[in-house]
Amino acid sequence: MRKFNILYIIIAFSAMLLLQNLSILRAVHEMSGDARVVNYSGLVRGATQRLVKLELSHRPDDELLGRLQAYLYGLAGNENDDNIAYMTYEPFQTSIGDLLVIWDELKQSIYDYRKGGASAEALLEVSERHFFKADEATNNAERGSEGKIKSTEMWITGGIVAISIIVVIVIVFSYLLRRSERRQMELLHEKNTQLEAAILQATEASRAKSRFLSNMSHDIRTPLNGIIGMTAIASSNLNNPGRMRDCLNKIAHSSRHLQSLVNDVLDMSIIESGKFILNAGEIDLPDFMESLVNIIQQQIKAKSQTFKTSLSDAVHKKIIGDRLRLNQLLLNILSNSVKFTPPGGIIGLDIRELPCPAEDFARFEFICYDSGIGMSEEFTRHIFESFSREQDSRIDKIEGSGLGMSITKRIVDMMGGEISVESEKNKGTKFTVVLDFPVSNIDPNSSAGPSDSAGIRLDGVRVLMAEDNALNTEIAIEMLTSAGVLLDCAADGKEALAMFNASEPGYYAVILMDMQMPVMTGCQSTAAIRKLPREDAAAIPIIAMTANAFEEDVREALDAGMNAHVAKPVDFEALKLVIGKYLPEGTFRYAADTPETSVDAGAPDAPAIEPGSLLDNLAKHGVNVADGIKRLIGNKKAYEKCLVKFVEDKNFETLSRAILEEDLPAAAQAVHALKGVSANLSMNALAEAVTDLEQALKRNDVEEAKRYFQKSKALYEELAGVIRGFSAGLK
Predict the structure, then answer these.
(1) Domains and CATH numbers, the chain
(2) Model confidence over 352-383: pLDDT tens digits?
(3) For residue 620, what are the contacts with CB-CB under 8 A and spacing of at least 6?
(4) HSE on the CB side for 313, CA within 13 Å?
(5) d(Cα 517, Cα 503) in Å, to the nearest integer?
(6) Element (H or E) spanning 705, and its range?
(7) Do residues 71 and 82 lie in contact, with contact meaning Cβ atoms separated by under 8 Å?
């Protein structure tokens, strides 16, 4: 009988818990509706202010008036086309009722004002009462939404109490049955233990899901609200191009934030589902570090930080591992260092080889450190948990999903390694990752191979290159054709797509793709190529060759279907290596391996420059002339020709016009081209200035962009004056 009593009690409480969970799910659904109510309440206030301004300026907008009335009726619970949920919170409905009354007065005042029967002061008096009541409704909507959250928390707390009661009841009844039914009690105790573990597991899972949903709801709603709000504002400013551009830029920024968040969530989902796999391949550590530096350096330059790197005493410089995932985990750490280190701070990456007990394996220690704001000792214990962010007013406005370090920890775990963190408030942070890798079969003491790329020949290799800047194209032609490449050039992504589609399968061995081009971007062109119904469309190697070098740019390139990413300024010897990795064995060779060849195996380290010459004068204006000439395999005449071409191009004139007209998208396009060209010509001072300008444009900071533009303009005019004087002398 007592057993049945226990069973009945458990069933009763289970039913209660089921009802409670259903109530919680309903409350979560209502919370989503409440969020829309809050959004539309705020929209009513702003749209009404817009309506009144239009009326006072004698530009009546009946469509906006009708839309506002639809919003108000929807908030009051009437049927509507805007999917506005009904909020039952009484103070909110009272405010909406009052607001509807004032709305009728406001409409009448508007009609009277249009006919000349009411003064502007009378219209403003009614609108002010309407604004006040709209603010009151918004505040009540927020309080009602908060009340739902607290109510849901109370339900969860009640569930925990109910579970505790179940456990207590089971334990008490088990104790009473122990004397007479010892064997049965042991079995029952075992079942109770299993039940308790299941309940605790379910409770923890419920808490974890609640935390996840709560954090996701907040983090997704923030950029989503921005997108919705800016879209509404843009819709009401169709005849105001400046305001429209501002709205679209803000929508784009919020969309990128939302995309980053979704990417992190998808990564976590893949890891949790067990579908996350590691792809082993050869990693050349010096090449890997150079690529990593190219990706992160623009972010570091944008904050005027110093980046220090070292690869100390590594015996094995070629290892076997997943390059993409190793790159991802280190970029996650370094990107955080950049975010949380003030301008002028220090970021560092040290890679050291440690003794490894396993034969044919190499153990490496990756140390990422910074001089940033640091973390508390308490928070370092939670840094690898999902959605963990320390409560600090200095980081409240720094965007992030809170998933990056959790993903990093999972990647390290899957690689069989260890990660630790040391940090001190206001002094900095150090992450240490220790990983074991199988070593490559290449002899580490050999001087030949890809760590030595000078003089690589790619004779007969046909490459299709998409590049919209004529000067960058000229430089690439000079460099690649000198190595034996048969190069075909397209001016944009659409033309590259057409040229590839018109070619025979296997005609092109590799495609080099700029990312930011007019007509069709590199990512759009790559995605289209991958979808073509031909046998080589999915397999042909496509390499991004672009000035877009941020982590998100690399991710975007890979997501679009590209195989690799090479940042500008392009190291063409390194580019030849990357191309060589995707060619059949034996396709590329070293010039030194064929004595009969007369090709120059490498540029001189320090080309001679005559005093008072063009190149000597340019060196005084922030141009690394020696590096620029080396980039063109030591050909000073070719470098001078590119310099003249640089001032003949219209990139800076286009940029000037876009800045003057505050056309930010056009300015971003022009500055991107200028950054790539100046970097390829080793105009370091100008490249840094336009990089700062590009970052200001990405932040939609018009005033700061104009300041950086003036700095760039001064540097450009200095260089252009010297080069034009040289060009005039030649003529």
Answers:
(1) 2-271 (no CATH), 281-438 (3.30.565.10), 456-593 (3.40.50.2300), 614-730 (1.20.120)
(2) 999 988 877 899 999 999 999 888 888 778 78
(3) none
(4) 6
(5) 22
(6) helix 702-730
(7) yes
